[in-house]
Amino acid sequence: MSSTLSTPRAAATPVVLSLPRAILWLASAAFAAVALYYFVGVDQGATSVFGNDAHIHEFVHDARHFLGFPCH
């Protein structure tokens, strides 16, 4: 014999942001995404932010190959 009683679910509460705050969050997310894309996909050797240095490239080297970026 099974019970058909269900527990009441709490209604989802929407997140309400003001327009300036929403723009700030979206701009921050876009900046973080572009920075992540740059460091994983573009930064290497001659185009490095830190000069002719490959530390960032070596740090994300496996992630580059995993994501399909050409490397060498």
Short description:
Keywords: Membrane, Transmembrane, Transmembrane helix. This is Putative cobalt transporter subunit CbtB. The chain is mainly α.
| Main sheet makeup | none
Number of strands: 0
Radius of gyration: 22 Å
Structural class: mainly alpha
Strand content: under 5%
Cα(first) to Cα(last) distance is 65 Å
| SS element count, helices | 3
Shape: elongated
Helicity range:
40-55%
Uncertain ranges:
none
List the secondary-structure elements in sequence, H or E: HHH
State mean pLDDT (0 to 100 scale): 83
Protein name: Putative cobalt transporter subunit CbtB
Keywords: Membrane, Transmembrane, Transmembrane helix
Transmembrane segments: 22-40
Organism: Motilibacter rhizosphaerae
Fold and architecture overview:
Keywords: Membrane, Transmembrane, Transmembrane helix. InterPro entries: CbtB_put. This is Putative cobalt transporter subunit CbtB. It comes from Motilibacter rhizosphaerae. The chain crosses the membrane at residues 22-40. This protein is mainly α and 72 residues long. It has a domain at 19-67. It is 50% helix and 0% strand. The protein is built from three helices and no strands. It has helices at 19-42, 55-59, 61-67. The protein is elongated and about 65 Å long. The protein starts with 18 loop residues before the first helix and ends in a 5-residue tail after the last helix. The model has no long low-confidence stretch (mean pLDDT 83).
